[in-house]
Design goal:
60s Ribosomal Protein L30, Chain: A; four-stranded mixed sheet; about 25% helix; about 300 residues; alpha+beta; Protein Transport Mog1p, Chain A
Length: about 300
């Protein structure tokens, strides 16, 4: 018999995520709000080992890919407490857990940015506080789950792959409201950073194909600098992102150089302590939207500030 969140006295289950065949479903907490959903048919690659030395093994699955992100407000459930009941339910549905890991054990930045996640603010992942699992069914289905937390909410993304000959309409059968307006999208920059753990510095401008940051001034940098100088215990990592034009290694290098350029500007122009800043680059591994259009590529080229652990 499938076990639910209701088996845990701190939460009740009242909604289900269906993934296709034999009425199989994953039960989520009653307060789960569907924030984003995407269905497409293509090939999916899921990490099946931790990243070590910058590399990992991947499991490849083909078919109908359904990604759904949920925000769970008003709950103190940890990322582990969010994922563990889902793991049990998958096992009860005869899924085999191929791989499971937690935050830094998974491989840090490399692992996080190898995941095909719905874009923020609909799905949020704290690099120091997330859980991941990959499961497979004998009939060919795959399910990956990632859970994380922000200050006031938990986040879950469930990705399912159903072989083409088994694919059916797998829309949620329970009444789970789709968020019409995400309350974080219009928040001031620092509220997004502290509430969600990350924020895109969308007013930055770089010369095409260059890591040279424009002359500015950029409101996002002055705002971020003021916050960091008023909170000397805080630390952020600046993460560069690119479109998918060109090879991965080139784009990772360019995106890291752009992040480093932003770090340099914050130190030299705004007086932020170097110890409060890090700079990384992930190339095109974490797109916000499609790279098939010029508008999409422009959206994907960005630098984000991510709150880092202070210890």
């Amino acid at each position: 018999m499938k076990r639910k969140f209701g088996a845990n006295p701190i939460v009740m289950a009242a909604c289900s995520v269906w993934f296709g065949v034999s009425a199989a479903a994953l039960d989520l907490p009653a307060s789960a709000l569907l924030t984003a959903s995407n269905v497409e048919t293509k090939e999916a690659n899921f990490p099946s080992t931790a990243f070590q030395g910058g590399t990992a093994k991947f499991a490849t699955a083909k078919g109908q890919i359904t990604k759904r992100a949920y925000k769970i407000s008003g709950s103190s459930l940890t990322s582990f407490q969010l994922i563990e009941p889902l793991k049990v339910q998958l096992q009860d549905e005869d899924f085999e857990i191929l791989f499971a890991c937690a935050d830094t054990v998974c491989g840090g930045y490399d692992f996080r940015y190898a995941l095909d996640l719905l874009p923020p603010p609909d799905m949020f992942v704290d690099l120091g506080n997330f859980q991941y699992l990959l499961a497979a069914h004998p009939d060919g289905r795959y399910v990956s789950v990632i859970t994380s937390r922000a200050a006031q909410a938990g986040f879950v993304q469930i990705t399912t792959v159903t072989p083409k000959d088994m694919a059916v309409d797998d829309a949620p059968r329970a009444s789970i409201p789709m968020a019409q307006v995400n309350p974080t999208s219009d928040l001031p920059l620092i509220e997004q950073l502290t509430g969600m753990g990350h924020v895109a510095l969308d007013d930055l401008a770089f010369e095409t194909g260059s890591s040279q940051l424009g002359a500015g001034p950029f409101v996002s940098l002055s705002t971020l600098a003021t916050y960091l100088k008023n909170a000397p215990e805080a630390r952020v990592v600046l993460v560069g992102h690119s479109d998918n034009v060109g090879g991965l290694a080139v784009n990772v290098a360019l995106s890291k150089q752009r992040a480093a350029s932003v770090k340099k500007r914050l130190i030299e122009t705004y007086g932020v302590a170097a110890s409060q800043l890090g700079a990384e680059g992930v190339g095109y591994l974490a797109p916000r939207t499609t790279n098939a259009t010029e508008e999409g590529r422009n959206t994907n080229r960005r630098v984000e500030a991510i709150l880092a652990p202070t210890q």
